[in-house]
């Protein structure tokens, strides 16, 4: 299409089908939380439906792009959409970081008798505030046995993710210069680094549950640890899948030096995930 024309997409069934699949997954998940495994089939059907809709919807978008149907207006629309999506992800993680900071800065000192609400120390008069919280107030909650040293597996994973941002940037620059071999090699390296990160994270979780006593039931430390690192790990898995799909498109000859927003959007997402990990490394493991 010409750069000045306004693109009107064809009618699509994917939005309504995606909404129905998402609704089914949420109904199933809610049923699982309330009634147990009874809601599992509905949840699984909804999840599979979402994955199928996403795959076919992205397929259609790729085909439309390859046919040259998109113009500058559509390019701006995609960029704004991806920008707002990443902003929503920023706010998502801000909520969990906010929980961590609130507990450490306000709730624990209050329970120890400090601050404006120090009267809450009457609940557990023998409680002593500290972080990581190894001895939660109340004998019914068992805290973790010990915590991870930030200078072993967490540091290794930090170096891996930082390196993956560098390799992805090299691949991106190669694409802008038209060096497709560079793109293939460095993007493959990025995918491999992502897979290594996921593997190490899985091993860390195994160690947390079997040897360190860090579980979701291990007080506020265990809960915040798994909420922050777990959701981040899920984002790394999603990001790795995205990069694998982008690598497949690169191998099929998609993208050009001046038309590669699919690659660019994946890079935005991956760099965001890397930035979140830096915050996790500092405030969950180090400080």
UniProtKB/TrEMBL annotation:
Keywords of the record: Membrane, Translocase, Transmembrane, Transmembrane helix
Subcellular location: Cell membrane; Membrane
Keyword flag Transmembrane helix: yes
EC number(s) from the headed UniProt entry: 7.1.1.9
Any one GO biological process: aerobic electron transport chain
Major subcellular site: membrane
InterPro entries for the chain: Cyt_c/ubiquinol_Oxase_su3, Cyt_c_oxase_su3_dom, Cyt_c_oxidase-like_su3, Cyt_c_oxidase_su3-like_sf, Cyt_c_oxidase_su3_a-hlx
Record bears the keyword Membrane: yes
Topological category with respect to the lipid bilayer: Multi-pass membrane protein
Top-level taxon of origin: Bacteria
Recorded GO CC terms: plasma membrane
GO function term, MF aspect, one: cytochrome-c oxidase activity
One Pfam family linked to the record: COX3
Domain Heme-copper oxidase subunit III family profile: 2-287
Segments traversing the membrane: 16-36, 42-62, 83-103, 183-203, 223-247, 268-286
Stated family: Belongs to the cytochrome c oxidase subunit 3 family.
PANTHER family assigned: CYTOCHROME C OXIDASE SUBUNIT 3, CYTOCHROME C OXIDASE SUBUNIT III
Protein name per its UniProtKB record: cytochrome-c oxidase
Organism: Halomonas cerina
């Amino acid at each position: 299409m010409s750069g000045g024309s306004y693109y009107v997409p064809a009618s699509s069934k994917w939005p309504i089908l995606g909404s129905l699949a998402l609704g089914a997954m949420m109904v199933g998940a809610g049923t699982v939380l309330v009634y147990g495994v009874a809601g599992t089939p509905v949840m699984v059907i909804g999840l599979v439906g979402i994955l199928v809709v996403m795959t076919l919807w992205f397929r259609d978008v790729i085909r439309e792009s390859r046919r040259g149907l998109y113009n500058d207006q559509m390019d701006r629309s995609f960029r704004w959409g991806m920008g707002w999506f990443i902003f929503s992800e920023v706010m998502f993680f801000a909520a969990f970081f906010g929980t961590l900071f609130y507990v450490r800065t306000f709730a624990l000192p209050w329970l120890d008798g400090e601050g404006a609400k120090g009267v809450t120390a009457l609940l557990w008069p023998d409680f002593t505030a500290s972080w990581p919280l190894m001895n939660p107030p109340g004998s019914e909650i068992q805290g973790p046995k010990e915590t991870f040293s930030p200078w072993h597996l967490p540091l290794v994973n930090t170096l891996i993710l930082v390196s993956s941002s560098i390799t992805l940037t090299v691949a991106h620059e190669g694409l802008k210069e038209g060096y497709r071999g560079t793109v293939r090699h460095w993007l493959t390296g990025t995918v491999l680094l992502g897979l290594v990160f996921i593997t190490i994270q899985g091993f860390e979780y195994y160690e947390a549950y079997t040897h360190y006593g860090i579980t979701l039931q291990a007080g506020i430390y265990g809960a915040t640890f798994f909420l922050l690192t777990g959701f981040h790990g899920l984002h790394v898995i999603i990001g790795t899948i995205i990069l694998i799909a982008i690598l497949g498109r690169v191998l099929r000859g998609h993208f050009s030096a001046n038309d590669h927003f699919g690659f660019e959007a994946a890079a935005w997402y991956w760099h965001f995930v890397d930035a979140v990990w830096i915050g996790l490394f500092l405030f969950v493991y180090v400080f």
